[in-house]
Structure formats: structure tokens, C-alpha cells
Protein 1
Amino acid sequence: MTVFGFLNIDKPLGMTSHDVVAKVRRGLKIKKVGHAGTLDPLATGVLVVCVGAATRLSEYVMHTTKRYRAQIHLGVTTETYDAEGEVIRHVDASHVTRADFEAALAQFQGEIEQLPPMYSAIKQGGRKLYELARAGETVERPARPVTIHALDVVDWSPPQVTVDVVCSSGTYIRSLAYDVGEALGVGAHLSGLVRTASGSFDLARAVGLETLLNSDNPHQYLITPDEALHPMPVVDMDAEAVEALVHGRVVPSAGAAAGTLAQAYSPDGVFIAIVEAEGHAWRPRKVFV
């Protein structure tokens, strides 16, 4: 049986994303398994896992809008910007009001340049930043453009503040917590994080890792490409077009805008390829049969 699809897993606290992938690989006895967007060990929530040939589609589910519920602890700064790191500064933050906090938060909404934390997997000079950080090195790292679509305070219980975040892929919520703390002059770190959605995958429909692994039929939790890749349009192809796509040839399109990506399906509903509109044709980008 060829296994092909996506899993929406509620990542447990304390596990790395790689740990989850390894457990799925062993539990489902499938070699090709990967994830589409890392979650730190202290984070829980939606981890999209690609199974089988769906690993070739990871780029289409990875670069999507993310939603988080973040807990920010005011007055305590750590070297990693989260609760795992060594505390490097304590400041009395009792004077910070909710209005102060929301004003600081508003500075980071929209398109911003964000400096990633030293403790991150971003590579610089061929080495991951966290490797350099553990060796006691701090290096200049370029700020990266990210978009923060929405920031809403949902619980004000200082020094703990809970914020709902809607943001682009690549946003570091740890950096956001740190930056807000610096803007307030009291410091802060990320004390808890739940990813509540990643693209079309949301926490309400996620499966627990142990539930998946203990299931008599774990394949029931696989999500098909048409659902996982939503809202990417679906194009139904006739048999002749399928034959052309399989052999790498273009097929006529109905005037889709240039650059439009779509999912191509055969007459019997089988996922065939990712295609891209060029002129008046669909060009195959990734073929799966």
C-alpha cells in the first residue's frame, strides 16, 4: 500500500519536531516522513507531518500563515528568549499597565524586520546559530522581513500576558516576546507557546501523537492533498492531459493568471501533479504518478 498524505499532529510538550517525525516513521513503518515547520520543544500544538511522497509538497504547506497563543513573562530576560534559557536580567515590571503593553505590542504589527535569536537553527557561515551560541559566540545576524497580521491580548495577568498572534511563516515568537520586553524597558521572555493553526491545519482537528501511534488504523488520520493544500485551486484533467503531464508536457489552460499554482487530478480523482499557469498552458512542476 502506498501511503501518501499529511498528518495534523498536536505536538507534545518537551519533544522536538524531529522526535515526532522519528516516532511517526517507526510507528507507521514508513521511511519518507518529514515535518513542515519546526516547533521548539517548549511549544505544543499544530505540527504538520508529511508522509510518503507528500514530503515533496512540504514547501506548499510550510510557507503559510501561522497562528499562535503566546505567553509572555514580563521583567525576566533569558539568553534563549524562552523559559529554557539562563536568566540574564530581572527587572521590576509591576508599573507596566495593559495600555503600556498594548502600545508596545502595536509597534510590531505589520511588515517588520525581525532579528532572529542566537539560539535558532538558522545557519550562518555554514554553522547553526545555536551551535555558535553554545560555544559562547554572538555573531551579527541580518534581520529578516516578516509580517505580523494581528496581535491581541487575551489575558492580562502580569507578569504573565497571553497574546494571540497571526503571522507569516518564519516569524520567531521568542524574538517578538523579547522585542516587546525591550520596548517596555523591562525585558521579557516567552514562557509558553501553542501553535493553533498552520495554513489550513488547525488545532481543533489535530490528533495527539499517542492517539495516532496507538490506533489500529493510523492511516485514518491522513489528510489528502486537496484539503492540505487549500486554498490552492483544483483542476480536473482528462485522460489525454494526464498522459501529457506525466511525460512533462504542457496542457491547455482556461486562462488562469500566470504563475497560478494548481492541483491537477485525473478523471477518477487521483492526484497527478502540481501545475503552474504559463501563458495559456499548465506546466507540470511536480508529478506524482
Protein 2
Amino acid sequence: MKQISTFFVASLALFLLVAEPALAQSIDLSSIQSLLQGIFDALTGLLGVVIATLAPLSRPRAPA
């Protein structure tokens, strides 16, 4: 049992020494984030209200 815990502690120490930030943390995604934020703001603002109001009017009618 002592050998397993020693191996675990050594493995954990080695992992912490070689750990680096994830690739997603080092990429600058601010332009994509601002684009998505603009789309979100448009859909939740006045434009979103207008689209939600007009959407039922553009629905195809069932055949009579």
C-alpha cells in the first residue's frame, strides 16, 4: 500500500511540475466573443421584440 501512495504522490508532483495552461486559455477569442455578444444583444433588444412579434404573421397557413 505504501508503494502505491508513494507512486501516486510522485506522479501528482510530476504532473503539477509539467502542467501548462490549456490551449483555449492562450488563444485570444475576444473578437469572437464580441461578435456573439452583439448578436445576443440584437436578439434580446428591440430587434428581438420586433422579430418575435412578426414571427407568427409569417407562419404558413394550413390548407382549408
Protein 3
Amino acid sequence: MTKYDISQPLKKGENIIIFTPTETGEIPFSCSMGMYTGKFVVVDKVSATKPVQQIVDNREVVAPVVSKTNNKVQLIKSLYTQIEDVSPNEFTVKKGQPVKWVIAMNEPPTGCMQNVVIRSIGVTQPMNTSGETVVEFTPTEAGDLWVTCSMGIHRATIHVV
């Protein structure tokens, strides 16, 4: 939030940012690339009694998808759209076995979302504009692999057991 000189990297889970608005109006905020945006609407005490439109995220919480093993290769699948990014976006795979992640491209990716990056294991895979994007790797250690765009924005988590 540039108006209040607040710039904070976010971590997985809940993030709390405390600030005190000094005037009524809209306070915009966004990610560093400006791709994810929102705003706070600050009202005075008189206006505070009127209802304010709120947008509610009604997406259901989905359990991680367990990979399917075919000829010793673990297969995971997602669908890409510009609104939802990759969905599902949480998987469980076994360490030491090759993984093949097939992403069906419903729309062409834009901006920094044109790459699938798993920095901790050195994977960078450009996304195709149509058809499928295939990401292949073999996890060697148990733990969570964060999948990001090229700018480091979290896109998915792969749990390695």
C-alpha cells in the first residue's frame, strides 16, 4: 500500500498487516506486479451504519490430490485458466519416484504466469499457450515443494512423502 508506505512479503497462511487510515475513501493494494489487486473502503462514522458491498470467496477447500502411479511414474493433473490459475493446486507425491504433472491449457497464460517454477529443485517450465504443459521431475526429499510463477507468486504446493 504505497499511500501508507507498506510493502510486505506474504507467507503461506494468514498474514496480518496493521495500519490506521487517516481519511475516508479507497485505499488500493496489489502484489508487486499489480496482477492481484484489491481495496479497502474507509468510511466516516455516519457512513459506517450503511451496508458496504463485500466480495466473498465461496471457493470450497479441497483436500490435496494424491498422485496416480502408472509404470512407476506418478501422474498429477491440473487445468489452467487465467482466473483460477492451476486447479487443483495441491498434490501429494512420493519421494524417489518420477512425477509427471500434466496441465491442460484452457487459456493462454499471461505475464509472469507463463512459467511453472519449482526453485527448490531447479525446475522452470514454460507453459504452452494451448494443449498441455508437462512438468517432469523426481523429488528426492520429503517436504513441501512450492510451485510459483517466475516472479515467485505461489501457484501450487506439492507435498512429498
